[in-house]
Design brief:
The chain is mainly β. It folds into 4 domains: 166 residues, no CATH class; 91 residues, Phage tail protein beta-alpha-beta fold (3-Layer(bab) Sandwich), CATH 3.55.50; 78 residues, Bacteriophage T4, Gp27, baseplate hub, domain 3 (Elongation Factor Tu (Ef-tu), domain 3, Beta Barrel), CATH 2.40.30.150; 101 residues, no CATH class. The protein has 6 helices and 28 strands. Strand 3 and strand 4 form a beta hairpin. The N and C termini lie close together (11 Å). The relative contact order is 0.14.
């Protein structure tokens, strides 16, 4: 692929706009996709600060919202949500600290008692480009601003899990995936488990039933075998899915047509259905142009010498009916001189897991020539986990060598702080376009996003550890 062309952006005045909707869910086993009627929920359009954290390595995203006690909340006027006469009248109210605020019927100032654990919360953030347009009244201006600035998917969707009572008022929230913390696992032992058996709606075990979440259709296309697994009612569904991340199989929340799904994938995979990605993203990814979108560049260019690169591979082999974790490490053979060298092997095998007596009785043979552990502190060691249960030592070595060959050694390290107008999500594909340092140019997978909104502005901090592709040379 070729790099995108630069885009010329017009100067203008951007106004920060936010909208926070809070309501009581009608059924906690069903996740509301559409926004509720504004007359049947609490609506806040001002805050002190909002911070949202999400990563595809963390199943449950979090958000923290802070606002003063004097913040104005729009709420239901009557039990039927019908505004009565006098709605356009304005009056004043004196707060305990002596401040006088302007109020309208149907509005009140925020108090800690307004928020309860378990309420649904949805947060929209954005910019409104002021073009000097004159509006008939304040309501028309508000509608126009929200239509332009907030006409996108919510920046956060979840539940309130904690409510502070001090000043400023602070509410802690978790994404809709927190439903998985409220359901325990059955007591079962499975010798040859697949993701579909465990999580598919109407499947053999259907662990997601009653959480309002379903397994993503892409994950359903693959029979992902996770081998032997034992569950107990001491564990929640969230505990189990988080544990898989330790073995390179990440479960994360993604949205398809505004509907939330649980997706399972890996950062690197030849199988497209197993890749970590968002379905709603553009095919070329979201363009990040350094001379316009970037607020602070904390990226460091990385170019790893293959002679100082090693792959640490892990797999599970079978010893009788028992799964045993097994690991090997490979690096380039220092004596190998190139593709024409037929005397030496290209890779060296080292730091192999010691075989048990039972494994050797079953025919396993140590492949590493040295029993001493090699110091790799000066090497860039990249982890690899085989998805094949019962992988043999020879197969694991072959997979590690293939991974070494395909690993992109040119990339970036660190974080990138951008303005919030792109609304980047975790697992999104982004394209970097930097005219001063074109070595950064390419397509990257976003691992982690930290969003901050408030009196200090609107920023997103992106962690970009994975380079998907580099642009073609002209």
């Amino acid at each position: 692929m070729k790099s995108s062309n630069a885009i010329a952006y017009q100067d203008g005045l951007d106004i920060l706009v936010c909208k926070i909707i809070i309501w009581e869910p009608s059924d906690k086993q069903v996740i509301d996709i559409s926004d509720p009627d504004e007359n049947k929920c609490l609506v806040l359009r001002e805050c002190q600060s909002i911070e949202i954290e999400e990563s595809y390595k963390k199943l449950i995203g979090t958000a923290s919202v802070r606002f003063p006690r004097g913040t104005v909340i729009k709420r239901t006027v009557t039990a039927n949500g019908i505004e009565e006469d006098g709605v356009t009248s304005i009056y004043t109210e004196r707060l305990n600290d002596g401040a006088i605020i302007e109020k309208r019927p149907g509005y009140s100032v925020a108090q800690p008692k307004d928020f309860k654990v378990g309420q649904r919360i949805r947060i929209y953030l954005g910019y409104y480009r002021d073009k000097g347009k004159i509006f008939a009244n304040e309501k028309a201006r508000q509608q126009e601003m929200e239509k332009e600035a907030l006409g996108h998917a919510p920046n956060f969707d979840g539940y309130i899990v904690k409510c502070g009572v001090s000043t400023p008022i602070e509410i802690k929230c978790e994404s809709v995936a927190s439903n998985l913390k409220r359901k325990t696992c059955p007591n079962i032992l499975i010798n040859n488990a697949t993701i579909s058996d465990l999580l598919k709606a109407g499947g053999k075990y259907d662990l997601l039933k009653g959480t309002g979440l379903e397994l993503h259709p892409d994950t359903l296309k693959e029979e992902i075998n996770i081998g032997k697994i034992q569950l107990s009612d001491d564990l929640t569904i969230a505990d189990v899915l988080t544990e898989w991340g330790k073995y390179g199989l990440y479960c994360f929340l993604c949205y398809d047509n505004d509907k939330p799904y649980i997706k399972v994938g890996m950062p690197f995979s030849k199988n497209k259905n197993m890749l970590i990605e968002n379905d709603s993203e553009p095919s070329m990814g979201t363009l990040i142009q350094f001379n316009y979108h970037v607020a602070n560049d904390n990226l460091t260019l990385m170019n790893v010498d293959p002679a100082y690169l090693a792959v640490s591979a892990e797999g599970f082999r079978m010893e009788g009916k028992k799964q045993i974790k097994y690991s090997i490490t490979i690096r380039l053979n220092p004596e190998w001189t190139g593709s024409s060298d037929t005397e030496h092997k290209k890779f060296q095998l080292l730091n192999e897991t010691k075989l048990s007596t039972k494994a050797m009785k079953l025919g396993a043979v140590t492949k590493s020539k040295s029993r001493d552990r090699v110091d790799l502190s000066k090497y860039t060691v990249i982890p690899y986990i085989s998805r094949k249960i019962g992988v043999t030592e020879s197969e694991l070595v072959q997979e590690a060598e293939e991974y070494f060959e395909n690993y992109n050694r040119n990339g970036v390290d660190g974080t990138l702080v951008i303005f919030g107008d792109l609304n980047i999500k975790a697992a999104a594909k982004v394209e970097l376009l930097d005219f001063r340092e074109p070595e950064k140019n390419g397509w990257y997978r976003v691992e982690e996003v930290n969003t901050k909104f408030g009196v200090s502005g609107f920023r997103q901090t992106l962690k970009l550890p994975y380079c998907i592709a580099k642009p073609e040379k002209e």
